[in-house]
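Internal ticket #5521
Category: modeling
Description: The requester needs a full-assembly model to guide mutagenesis choices. All entity lines are attached below as received. Residue total reported by intake: 229.
Assigned to: D.W.
Attached entities:
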Amino acid sequence: NAGVTQTPKFRILKIGQSMTLQCTQDMNHNYMYWYRQDPGMGLKLIYYSVGAGITDKGEVPNGYNVSRSTTEDFPLRLELAAPSQTSVYFCASSSGLAGGPGRGEQYFGPGTRLTVT
Amino acid sequence: LAKTTQPISMDSYEGQEVNITCSHNNIATNDYITWYQQFPSQGPRFIIQGYKTKVTNEVASLFIPADRKSSTLSLPRVSLSDTAVYYCLVGGGSSNTGKLIFGQGTTLQVKP
């Protein structure tokens, strides 16, 4: 059981470039999340998904897009990268107990460190 | 929208009990309160979750007063390996689905 895996671990982008951060979980969880963590700060929710085909915005969605075609995968797309998107990105998943995504344990991946210059 | 506030840092010594409080004045009725631990260059790791009153597991206790506007994570007898950043997370209840708000984190330094 690998849990939540993320690729790549590190990436440097030039301003205006695009990329996709990959996230896969093998726990058959319904809920998946993308967060960003700026230095010395807490995590901020970008997008989340309650199941295949269903996604919704979190606190800071601007500049990002997501899709959820399978239960296992939840890629995050950055279009036209900007320096403000320099951050560490974490993907997480949870089983989705009754009561919403705030209930139950979230399992986090190891993160992707992205620098935009 | 729930805003969470935590102390930036705390120091303790091995063997002591540590209490970290999080303030969340605008918590919604169905929101849960969850605490995570994070080591450098790693993703957060779940510690404990509660809705009201007191919850205890094998590593920590969580105290939530009746008005739910704050919560206190209690770590009994800390060791050097408990040096980490601790985050409270509030939100995500059935009526507040997309609102998962992390605090800024409390850096706990445990000294020998």
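Resolution: model delivered.
Comment from assignee: The mean pLDDT of chain B is 92.
Ticket closed.
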